[in-house]
Design a protein that fits this description.
By secondary structure, the protein is mainly beta. The chain has one domain: Beta Barrel (Maltoporin, Chain A). It is 9% helix and 51% strand. The longest helix has 29 residues. The two termini are 39 Å apart.
Amino acid sequence: MATTRSRLNRRRLSFSVPRTAPTHAAQTSKLLPLGAMLLAASFATSAHAQAEKTLGTVTVREKAETAEGKDSLRASETRIGKGKQQLRDIPQSITVVTEKQLDDRNLDTVKDALKQTAGITFQAAEGGEEDIRLRGFALSTTGDIFVDGLRDPAFYDRDTFNLDRVELLRGSASMLFGRGSTGGAVNMVNKVPRLMDENQIDVTVGSHNHRRVVGDFNQQTGESSALRVSAMKTTADNNGAGSSIDKQGIAGSYRWGIGERDEFTASLYRLENNNGINYGMPWIKPTSTSPASATTLLPVSPTSNYGMASDYNDGTATYATLAHTHRFDGDTELTTRVRRGAYTRDQRASTIRLTAGENLSNFGPSTVLTRGTQNKIQDLDSVYLQSDLSAKFDALGMRHELLSGIDVAREQKTVYAARTAAQGLGGVDLIKPNTTVGTPDDSAWVNEGSRVLRVNNQYTSTAWGVYAQDLVQIAPHWKLLGGLRYDNLNGNYDTFAAPAANANNGTLTNYKMNVGEWSKRVGALFQPNERESYHFSAATSFNTSGDAYSLGASNADVPPEQSINLELGAKIDSADKNFTTRYALFRSTKLHERNTDPLVDVAVLSGKRHATGLELDFTGRITPRWEAYGSFMWIPDARIDEAYKSPTGSDNERTGARPSLTPRISATLWNTYQINGQWRVGAGLNHRGAQTPNRNPGWEAPAFTTTDVMAEYRVNEQLTFKGNVSNLTNKLYADQLYSGHYVPGAGRLVQVTGSYKF
C-alpha cells in the first residue's frame, strides 16, 4: 500500500491542466514580497527604537505565561483576542481546555478536546476532519479554526501532542479574525520554548493494541534563548469507533530574545495521518411501518468496521512560522507572524447502506450491507501574514487598551476526482462487494492504487483585513469596548465537467467572488472589584455564502451571510482567585443564510435562524486537593425563521423547525482529587442531548451520557503512572451525524500511561 500511495503522490505532483487563474507560484510570489515588507517594517521599527534608546532591564514573565496550562485546569489570560488579554477583560464567552485537562483525560485529538466544551456537535459528512458545530452553527467549513491566531485549513485530523491549550471563543468573531461563522472560533495554542531545561516522555498502551509515545524536550540554549521539540507516534488496531490509527508528528521551535525588546520565534510543524476510516453506519427503523421519527442506531459494536480493507484516510499538515515581537517602552508591543503551509488529504472510504426493506425486526448477522464509494483527494497551500499592535496608554484622562492590526492571506486548493472506465485514459470502475452484519472486517480489498486522477476543481483566494479595537476605562469600575474591521476577499474557482472519452478534462466553468465587508464589536464591562466582571456585548460576523472553497451559480457573487451575537454575562473568581465561574445569556442570529451540500449540490438551508440560550463554565480548585472543570449549555429556543423553499417541496430545514445538530442541553464535568502525595483520582461525565442530523430528516439521534475515570500514582518527582477508562459503561451512541449515516462514538477504552520527567 505504501508503494501504491507513493506512485499516487508522484502522479499528483506531475499533473497539470490548463487554467484561467494564475499559477500558484506566481500568486505566491505576489504575496511573499508583501509579507517580507511587513516583517521587515517590524524589524526596522525595532532597529530604529534601539538606535534611539536602549531598553532597561525587562522582567521575564515566563513562569506566569506557561504554568497555568500545565499545572492547572484554570486559565486567566488568552491571546485569542490577538494581544495578550485577561479573560475578565473580554466581553464575550471564552472556554479554555488547558494542557492539564488534555493530559488528565488522555485527549489525543482536537476533536476529543472540543468534546470537553459544551455546545459542540459534529457533522459526519466528510469523515476524518473536525466538521464542527457550535451552538448549531458550522465552524470548520467556514475556516474558523486557528493555530496561534492564524487560520488553519479544515480537512486534517488534528493531534494535541504539541498543544499548550485549546481556546474556544463563542459568538461572532469576525472583528478579530475576518470571515467567520455565527458560532465562534477555535484557537489552538502551540507549546513554546521556555527558559528552563525540562524534558518529558509519555508512553501509553491500551485497548485494541493502542501504542502512543510522545516526547517533549525543552532546553535553554542561552541567557534569553531556548529550543523546544515535540514528537509523537501513535498506532492502534482500532480507535474504538471502527478506524485504525497510524500517525506521527514532530514540531520544533526556537525562540530567542525572550523577555527582551526584540523577541523572535522560528518553528516547523509536520503531522502525518495514515489511518483507517469508518465513514459511518446507516440509520435503521424498528419495523417497515415505523414512522421516520422512530429511526435509531444499529445494534452493533462501535468497533465494527464494514468498509474495505483497502479504505484509508491519509493526510498531512506541514507549516513553517516566523514570528517577531518588538516591545516599545511601556505596555506596547508589535507582533508579526508569517506562516507558509501545505496540506493534503487522500481519503478512500466506503459508504455503508442497508438494502431495501431492512429493519430491526429482520436485522441479524445475515443482514446484507452494501458498500459505496466516497473519495476525498485534496491539496491546499497557504500563506498567512498578520501584524498586531497592542498598547496600553493614558489619553483624554482615560486608560486605553488598544488592539489593531492587519492580516493578509492567500489560499489555493485543488480537488481531484477519479476517472471512470468510460472516461478513458486509464480510468477504472472498481466494484466493491457487499458484506453482512455478521462479518465485520472481512478483509475485502480493491486496488485503490489503480485509480487515475484528474483535477475536478481548483480554487484560489486572496484576502486582507485591517482592524482596530479600544478598551477604555471610563470610570473606576467601568470599561467600554469598541472595535471595527474591514475585510476584502477575492475568490477564483474553476470547475471541470466530467470529461468525454479520452479527453484530458471536461469543460471548464469559472466563477468569481468579491466580498468587501465591515464587522463591528461593542461592549461594556462593569468590574466592581478584582474578582468580578460583568459584561454586555454586541458583535457582527460575516461569511461567504455557502462554502468559500466551492463556488457555483448558487453562491458566487451573492451578498455574504450575516450574523449578530448579543451576550450578557459575568466572570466571577473566588476570594482566593483559585476558582472561576463564567455565566452568559446569548442570542445568536444568522441572516441571509445560503448553504450548499457539496455531496449532492443542492441548497439545504437559507434565510434566517436564531439560537438563544444559557452557558455556564467553572474551573479551578475548590479546595487545595479538589480541582474541577465544568461546561454547560442550554439552548431552549432555536428556530429556523425563514427557510429555503425547494421547488419540489422536499426541503426539510423548514420554517419553524429546530435547526439540526443543536441539542437543547450539552454538558461536561471533570473532577480530580489529590488523595495524598502519591495518589490522585479523577472522574467525569460528558452529556449531549438529542439532536437531529443535517437536513432535519424527521428523527433525532438519542441523547447520551458517557463516563470517564482516571487514577494516577506518582512514584517520585520524575516518574508517574496513570490509568484511564473512557466510556466506562461502553455506551453505544452516535457521535457524528449525517442524514444518511452516523459515525459511532468510541466504545470503552482502557489506557495506561507512564510519564518520565528529566
